[in-house]
Description:
By secondary structure, this protein is α+β, with helices and mostly antiparallel strands. The protein contains ten helices and 24 strands. The N and C termini lie far apart (93 Å).
Amino acid sequence: xxxxxQDITEQSLQEIQKAFSAGFFNTTTGAYSYDLTGVxxxxxxVTPFRDxxxxxxxxxGSPFAIWRAFMNINNQQPSPFPGFDxxxxxxxxxxxxxxxxxxxxxxxxxxxQDSVDLAKGLMDPYAEATMQVLNQVLIGEEKSLVGAxxxxxPQPAAMTATAAxxxxxxAASSTQGVAVAAxxxxxxxxxxxxxxxxxxxxxxxxxxxxxxxxxxxxVKGAVAYDWFYTSNGGTNWxxxxxxxxxxxxxxxxxxxxxxxxxxxxxPDFSTWAPTLxxxxxxxxxxxxxxxGFLASLTGDYNAAGQFVTPGTGTANGAVFIDGGGAALTxxxxxxxxxxxxxxxxxxxxxxxxxxxxxNGAQVQEIANLILANPSxxxxxxxxxxxxxxxxxxxxxxxxxxxxxxxxxxxEVEVAVPPGTIAARSDRVPFPQANISNVLEVRTLRxxxxxxxxxGRQAGVNGGPRKEFEIRSVEAFVxxxxxxxxxxTNIL
Length: 491
């Protein structure tokens, strides 16, 4: 061994010795493994309405599911007393065809081969992607069955807008204005609103504490309202916020669009940045969608039996109650606005709904009203356990329909936005009604997975990859809107 090599070897040994003496294998620089405890999934998949509705495959391919109905014209029938020696008066009949359009529901996934290789030993990315895409299809179908709509909402009616010199922080101005556009339930979760409506552009405030109160009558079919503000006579309209009632109080000047998530405390509200179009519908109509449950209660129907914008066809007979932007009220142990809904269903088709569908916000609102009223409910804890281990809170599970002398359950429906209550009837007590499912999902093809061949393309995620989609072609059928109703515009 040469002297130079010996010097290097000794120097190396000295450095190694230093490392050992410095504690090389401590918690900072030592070796350790990874405790992989598996994959967790934090995505809620709650689809109660989808789970309740019957599904039936069609035996014939067609753009529409079609049925015929004899309509209620009991109040147009002749007298049953013809008189002696006279023939009985002829009964009148009214038959109407109805159509529910088939539309595909589909979402896709993509998995690269490299992601499969890197995940070896932990998970199967393709199986995981398939499950997650299916979950999103089910969530999207739930929202669609409740709120999808192919026809446009009406333009809001004329606005009432009042400027005040108190109540906010608006500076002195004579060029202010407010505008509004309405959203369907589908638009609440995704995007799109109606043709907009503006106030006058000369709302005047003085001082530095001004405010503007604006309101419109409820738009039939709407569950939410996008509000816009201008401080320069309409040169710029800025998105101010969204409400589930048809009124708002403008309290501060803005010079840019608000962020939807920041301006609202609405559950699952869309991240779409609302825009204002005063000349035409702004996406409340979705021609690629079928008409869901709420659309079937608020839309008119045309001569072909297809749902169209309210006010442009024949009313479908469902009860519609405008809550007036007010909170639910209690009188005699009953909710006044829901009593109106029951009354409308009894005075017309003589039915009581199977259930009241509502958001959790309204369930809590009803509980607060009922449980806070000593005349409505009394608790008596007679034993020791009931006095020292009292359970706080409560919910109202049923509401008495005094008109029909029945009890109607309350159901929490996650896809019904706050401020709206729907009365659903799963059966109609009409003689020979011939209705097996009042509400039904008709399918040309039920949920199916389509796998595409392994492919490539230049660019990101373009290497060996597998693509797939989960798809259903379906229509939503409501054979008896007349036996149902909707209460909306509730604070």
